[in-house]
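Why show two proteins at once? Because comparison is the fastest way to build intuition. When a single record is shown, students tend to memorize it. When two are placed side by side, the eye starts asking what differs. So, the first record is below.
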Amino acid sequence: MELLLSDQVIVTTATKTAGSVSDSPAAVTVITEDQIRASGARTIPDLLRSAPGVDVMDTNSSQANVSIRGFNNQFSNKLLVMVDGRSIYQDFYGSVYWQQEPLLLSRIKQIEIVRGPGSTLYGANAFSGVINIITKTPQEIAAGSKTFLTAERGGENGSAIESYAGGKSGAWSYSVGGGYNSSDGYGSEEKNKIYDAHTTNILMADAQRALPGGVLRLSVNTNDTLGDFDAIYSARDADWRSRNYTASYDQDHARNPLQIRAFVNTLEVSNPSNLNIQSRIVDVSAQQQHSVSSQNNLVYGLDYRTTEVKAFLTANQSKSRSSWSVFGQDEARLGVQTTLFAGMRLDHDSTYGETVSPHLSLVHHLSASQTLRASYGSAFRAPTLIENYYNYSIPIIPGVFNVLLEGNLHVRPEKIHSYEVGYRREMKDGYVGVNAFYNQISDLINAIPTEYAPSPPFPPNTPSTSTSENIGGARAMGLELESAFPVARGLRGQFNYSYQDVQDDQGGPVNFSPKHKANLALETFGSSRVSFRTDLHYVGGSIFRDIYQNNQIYNVSAYLRADLKIAYQVGSAAHPWRVFTSATNLIGDGHREFPQVPSPLDGTAQSAADQRVIWLGVESR
């Protein structure tokens, strides 16, 4: 696994070509299938807590937000998340709805986390990093055994189950799977009930066929969630219907392999409050690797994307935009030990026009086990459709006073210029690495007041109309240390520490950007029937500035969280079953990662304190 044998793990996200972590032109962390299995995490955001530089924030049991190197928020919008190279970033809100994604945790093969700008290869929204969730192919599933996981929770009423299996029919390999998850939510434990319960059903099916020139893969994934979503807008008993349809063709063994992918992502949200959303994303892309010479490997491609949304925030009017892009990146060997990565991308959007994203990275091997890297990259975050087309009145005092939110078609993309140096040393039983970065951010987008209510009777500076504007910039600098090491026979550890100093143009702190974070993990490995893994997470304090309450600032306290999983294996080594118990928040039960901020719609609380959750279950792999 990556903890001890990272260079034996092949990664693709940092370059769109296969290579080792040490050869990557960016800071890369891999979470492998073994780590997922060993952890007690039941969600992908909880898995990501252990990675250096990654910020995870639970708003409540039904919503989590993830960012890299600061700038987290209620709708984290500066991180591109993909599944098998397919973007799951929601263009209309600028976020990822983790609970509503049709993903089975047990089917994930590995998660590749790239810290730093990624727009040269991936375009809009690969601002501070890229996370690529790679799942097992139908062929890999058909060659193995079925997987089954079930668990019951303590501390909150709920249960979870997921299973998948595969097979072959002629030249086709196929797999089918499903999952179910329900929870009364953390809010059920609150004195004043917070609405964050959910029930989720996932169904998926895909097929794969080997053709003379490559591999064809077709997949359909669905998620139906009935849940409460109180992050900003009080959407209780909301029915979320997410559908993903993907077709891809990969020439995986060709000298100059070609890859073509087309997908459609749809999301429909309806609820008794008529806070409805309909979103549809269509994306078609193609890329090719070309070995120009023994010293040069070129990757180039193009992409076309169109998005349409009809939502309560656009006065239920249909709004759309489209974009196209071309990119190229050359991997040039300057010698036996040195490689230069140089790339450029041009994006054109029907709303905000052209954006150019360059990247340069020099990777030098001091020895077979030591690597130095220096990088420069530029990236951008596209304005969301909501920021362009806001047309919504928030009833602060129902029937008396509303705040009008207006979109702005002239708002520019947010930009980042990043400078980074890194060092990594591979060892027989682990590794050590350090990365330092400096980011200059400009054209940040936020809602600002353009008109104010009369005073009296309203308090001074009470906004009556707000619109999306580019309000200024920020700078961020930081240091990330990470290591993996043997502790004793059959026991290994992982430690990382992240420091980030994120300030706006006026020198003030930026939302949910804690200066200090640290993670320590200990886990067993080998053939023992008893296994365990424990994770300690420390997250420093931060602030939240509420734009709906005249920029009132809330403090978010530091917390220490401990998670644990203990399992006992029964059955044969060829067909093992494991009985397990796992727990989250053994330390820090009741801590808040998001403050108790009233909803702008009805004044109810938006967040719930994270509760201790204990799972009992069985699993087979």
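Second record. Ask yourself what differs from the first in the token line.
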Amino acid sequence: MAQERTWWKEAVVYQIYPRSFYDADGDGIGDLQGVIEKLDYVADLGVDVIWLNPVYDSPQRDNGYDISDYRSIDETFGDMDTWRRLLDEIHARDMRLVMDLVVNHTSVDHEWFQRSRRGDPEYEDFYHWRETEDGEPPNNWDSFFGGSAWERDAVRDEQYLHLYDTSQPDLNWANEAVREAVYEIVDWWFQQGIDGFRMDVINLLSKAEGLPDGDPDSEWVGSEHFVDGPELLDYLVELEERVLSNYDGLTVGEMPQLTVEQARTYAGADGPLDLAFHFQHTKLDYGPDGRWSVGEWDLTELKAITDRWQTELAEDGWNALYWENHDQPRVVSRYGDPDEYRRESATMLGTFVLTLRGTPFVYQGQELGMTNAPFPTIDDLRDVDAINHARELMAARDCEYDAVRSIVEYRTRDNARTPMQWSDDDHAGFTDGEPWIDANPNYSTVNVERERADPESVLSYYRELIDLRSSTPTLIYGEFLDLLPDDRQVYAYERRREDDRIVVVLNTSGSAASVELPVGVPEACLLSNYDEPPTDLSGATLRPYEAAVYRV
């Protein structure tokens, strides 16, 4: 089926978390100058777009997702002059820059909130304020970071809504003045020359009228009233008509609890956005108690999710493909083997995300096969979400941190935020100072310097993989067909475009697997993470975590 060609469908996006990427000034925190100094490394990967996590002014309670000034760069990272040099250097390397747009909430330090809490008539209704006679929360909604979604403000003597940290009050998008202010910000950044936005939790903007109680048994209490709310589509369409339609930029919305049907509405051919992130495949390893427990996962579940998104967005929509980001633990530690088969499982998982139909997103360090890190004490954590939930787990179980350490280490967002591992120098070559968060101890063996010198490394494989994807139209626009939907060990699928047929074969386990496909002897093996891959797919044995891409 034909798809209109666009630059962002053919792109590979590389996500940079600047706080942890490279520290150029020795203060222990990554910065914009550090990103500039490492741009050649990023360009050498063959990627087309950089997504930069927030660098706006912020008290950094939630590492920049609590913004106090949308038009200014936080001094932690540099200043606007440095940011402009970064933009110029990115464009000079024929790459594009996508910024984070965080407009469901601001910081409590933002001028809007400060004036709202003082009752300034112009800003009084910029946020969701409520008062109750008994002082109890206005409803039973949960904060995603734990506890009630309401906090009393001593200045205004009322409670404000915060679906995330208490320092992140939710904006009241029902107020036209709020929307106008946001549209001005979006337009301002496009005027600076950026190439698009990744939009943080963008489907939480609309809250149900009256803010009614939510289902107390829901994993996120109240979410049925603020996820995909009643006015959301109207808000996004208005944003597209007022600003986005004026620019040839990429807009990708982060959308918790997103379904395929909703994705077609928001990011289909006629939708206000280009792409939407869903989370269904990132919940495969959730346990009986949800996110803060660990369960077994089955390949057929992943296949069902992937097949649905690949086929149901085939004619009306486009997939945003990813394993990792700043909020997700390292995929090798979740769905691979970080010990015996780190290289093999990292390359297999990379093959999967870069050979599906959609726009792939690669998170910094993923191309090295970086793994989850140890956090021996609660004081080693920096993630406010993990700290809050660790304390909740400890209180509920009446135990010390050691008793919940394994689940916290598995889930914490800090796993994605440990420093980028550049070398085996102190602190992984990330900084000459004391890092804001400790480097993963395995940096002595897992690092850029070492992997650059090894043609068999995860990094070398990712370069080949990105090049293959970028130079093979069938891997971008071709149809998708699952060849073994019921196999619990091997994922095999075909990508077809006109007369060109490509078959991807993945052993997702740490043991050998047999495969029988009705394709016989392939014309050529385009890429494999093992030497001498199988030559006859009508009857072959795959080695642990073996991945191979064939033209048939």
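One difference worth noting in the second protein: The CA atoms of residues 482 and 493 lie 4 Å apart.
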